[in-house]
């Protein structure tokens, strides 16, 4: 008897599923202890259905979601539509009907995960979503199954392939942000409205999920600070290289004495840091913990086959649990009371690029302002820029978010100083 | 009610277990659904017992293994003695007594794994050994649980920390093999007899286990070709760098049309390859597959806490399965009939360093010999070495093991040519 699945949507990722079921059928069947069969596929309308049939897709396409949700033969519903609605309503209905659900929808799970998981629990249904974070990298299941013995102190991740592709061009080729974006759009890596990718929003959704699996805490999406890559200039990139760093958009979740802090921001990574050599559209999750110490999980963050591989891994787990009669287990069982860190506990070194009139005493004044907030300098570089404007680059020692906002406020008050950019620096 | 465990041995790794049970107790208990308690610890003799007690270790030390194996309250036996005997006998007895067993003993599992797994199966006992490959990296469970949906085509791994530390010194600092070995011994990374580490034997044991989890095939240890790092010279390292490569000791298991091939050998990795930046004592496993494409799992290959973290992860899984009443599942369920590749199917590019008298026509003769085996050149470098001896470096295009042994035989027949080194080259 086969396990029958219903797909919601038949876009890029979904069409990778038949590939794996065909090319890896024997191994999948042995692992699931059952054949996995695509019973029905929901598409938008008859036009899409006819187009897909004409293109040789030999499946039972339906245009009404009830045809899947009310089908007693279907035990697993696979949602690959993306966005919030109607995916949310469909998943909720499927769970309420006792179907197990696999999804790759990070936006939805980051924002409405808690309520969906509650529905799943109520109906003893599984809701798995390995593909929602870092596409092909099996990071969520690894956190849930293997790193249970370890206490994680920090997770750093290159979590967005589009922005990482762009940063790689900006670092390796010296391209501007605009040129890198145009190339990413040309190659289909970036959408015409790239906001979600380049402003760190997509990575922030993933940070929400990683904080649940890694720290047992559900942080609201709004509590993840996010800063994008659009303000990064070739000057920033060049000075980073000169000082031994690579700039990347990095998701950062860590536990402090007062709670956890999550943010996504352009980050100076020391060249030797394992994340520094994660290039192009690849993703990686770097985990710091009291047991293993440092470990990293690297792979493609998106793409048809990698994402479908994670989706099928979830399907196999559910099918196997159905076979073994123990399907109740949550994907993530690690749950603690959520505590958000106080800004004074969230500490990092920072890079400041400040423009100032090229006149005597300016560096002294800058030093006084930083000193008044008890911030000390690690490295300082004064560069003459255009005409009579100098550019001062400072890498500080560790300071807290409280100190950071205080010093930025003070710098703002001095008409002479313009803070061009402030980025986090790792390893200082 | 707590799950009681018995430790066989209380060396470096074993003493990392109490650290995790204490520092991460809450999370471990939640995951296992039970408290995990160290009930008894087997030590060699009364001297060791008294020494450990005097050092403040407050455990129930025993000197007779039966005190653990015959204790009905102990459900999990953790073997951390290393070597083959008496570990093998003890594990077998524990399994036969219905105890579940966790081990980090790669030598034992690589050589006698099949018989131990048979005993485990017969007694419906679990035998888990995540720590046996790449210490802290959760690679075996990831292969068994997450990569079930994917078909793996090749696994490449930096699997031995000692030799990787040495190679890193040889590459980054230009040290000789002898200097790197002396340093590794001074730091305690290498034993006084370093054979297992530097000759690729330790990595070959791990390749046996990876071939089971990744390919479902049990390859005999003797079928893993292994070549060590002791013959690598500063000349080899320098020319590799000049040509854009880094030399590392790499375990390589891949599936060919006729079966799988496993070997451990010094390998030229292109500088951009993710494994090329795995330095020092760190390990990494790089997986090529039809779904994900390329993924890598990076972390410490040894050490007290990393290894103990993997051991405790296994203990948690067993404790949880005991709680859930489904403890029968094998660690690795992927089993196919073992097929060993025919040498003519195992293809790679190769590096040849050949010494030859510095006289006219030698390169032509070399080219003729390679051409007679249908081997073509990718890059050729002729370097004048000492006096009237020239050193010719060749990077070939892809050739099979059959072609390799044929050409080496022909080169041997020509008194003029001395093959100094032959190493595999990736990415050509």
Automatic annotation (TrEMBL), chains A, B:
Family classification: Belongs to the homoserine dehydrogenase family.
Active site, per annotation: 206 (proton donor)
Enzyme Commission code(s) on record: 1.1.1.3
Species annotation: Streptococcus pantholopis
Binding site for NADPH: 106
Keywords: Amino-acid biosynthesis, Metal-binding, Methionine biosynthesis, NAD, NADP, Oxidoreductase, Sodium, Threonine biosynthesis
Domain ACT: 351-427
Coiled-coil region(s): none
Record flagged with keyword NADP: yes
Catalytic activity: L-homoserine + NADP(+) = L-aspartate 4-semialdehyde + NADPH + H(+)
Pfam families in UniProt: Homoserine_dh (PF00742), NAD_binding_3 (PF03447)
The organism's place on the tree of life at top rank: Bacteria
Lineage: Bacteria, Bacillati, Bacillota, Bacilli, Lactobacillales
Primary enzyme class: oxidoreductase
Cofactor: a metal cation
Pathway: Amino-acid biosynthesis; L-methionine biosynthesis via de novo pathway; L-homoserine from L-aspartate: step 3/3; Amino-acid biosynthesis; L-threonine biosynthesis; L-threonine from L-aspartate: step 3/5
Binding residues annotated for L-homoserine, in chain numbering: 191
The protein, known as: Homoserine dehydrogenase
Family annotation (InterPro entries): ACT-like_dom_sf (IPR045865), ACT_dom (IPR002912), Asp/hSer_DH_NAD-bd (IPR005106), HDH (IPR016204), HDH_cat (IPR001342), HDH_CS (IPR019811), NAD(P)-bd_dom_sf (IPR036291)
């Amino acid at each position: 008897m086969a396990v029958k699945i219903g797909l919601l949507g038949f876009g890029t990722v979904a069409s990778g599923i038949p590939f794996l079921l065909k090319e890896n059928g024997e191994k999948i069947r042995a692992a699931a202890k059952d054949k996995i069969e695509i019973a029905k596929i929901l598409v938008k309308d008859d036009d899409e259905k006819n187009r897909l049939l004409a293109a040789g897709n030999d499946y039972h396409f339906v245009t009404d979601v009830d045809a899947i949700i009310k089908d007693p033969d279907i035990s697993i519903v696979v949602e690959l539509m993306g966005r919030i609605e109607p995916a949310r309503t469909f998943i909720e209905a499927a769970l309420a009907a006792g179907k197990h659900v696999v999804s790759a929808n990070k936006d939805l799970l980051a924002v409405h995960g808690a309520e969906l998981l509650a529905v799943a629990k109520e109906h003893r249904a599984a809701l798995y979503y390995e593909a929602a974070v870092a596409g092909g990298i099996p990071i969520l299941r690894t956190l849930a199954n293997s790193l249970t013995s370890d206490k994680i102190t920090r997770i750093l991740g290159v979590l967005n392939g589009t922005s990482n592709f762009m940063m790689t061009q900006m670092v390796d080729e010296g391209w501007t942000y605009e040129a890198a974006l145009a190339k990413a759009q040309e190659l289909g890596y970036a959408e015409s409205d790239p906001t979600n990718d380049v402003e760190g929003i997509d990575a922030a959704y993933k940070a929400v999920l990683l904080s649940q699996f890694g720290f047992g805490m559900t942080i609201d999406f709004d509590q993840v600070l996010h800063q994008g890559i659009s303000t990064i200039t070739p000057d920033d990139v060049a000075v980073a290289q000169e000082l031994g760093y690579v700039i990347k958009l990095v998701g950062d979740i860590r536990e402090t004495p007062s709670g956890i802090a999550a943010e996504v921001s352009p980050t100076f990574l020391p060249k030797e840091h394992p994340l520094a050599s994660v290039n192009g559209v690849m993703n990686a999750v770097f985990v710091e913990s009291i047991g293993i110490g440092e470990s990293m999980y690297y792979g493609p963050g998106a793409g048809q086959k990698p994402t479908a591989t994670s989706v099928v891994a979830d399907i196999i787990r559910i099918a196997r649990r159905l076979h073994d009669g123990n399907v109740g287990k949550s994907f993530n069982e690690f749950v603690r009371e959520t505590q958000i860190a106080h800004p004074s506990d969230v500490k990092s070194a920072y890079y400041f690029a400040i423009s100032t009139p090229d006149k005597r005493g300016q560096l002294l004044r800058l030093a006084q302002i930083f000193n008044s907030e008890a911030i000390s300098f690690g490295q300082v570089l004064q560069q003459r820029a255009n005409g009579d404007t100098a550019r001062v680059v400072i890498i500080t020692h560790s300071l807290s978010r409280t100190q950071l906002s205080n010093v930025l406020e003070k710098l703002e008050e001095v008409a002479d100083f313009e803070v061009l950019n402030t980025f986090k620096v790792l390893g200082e």
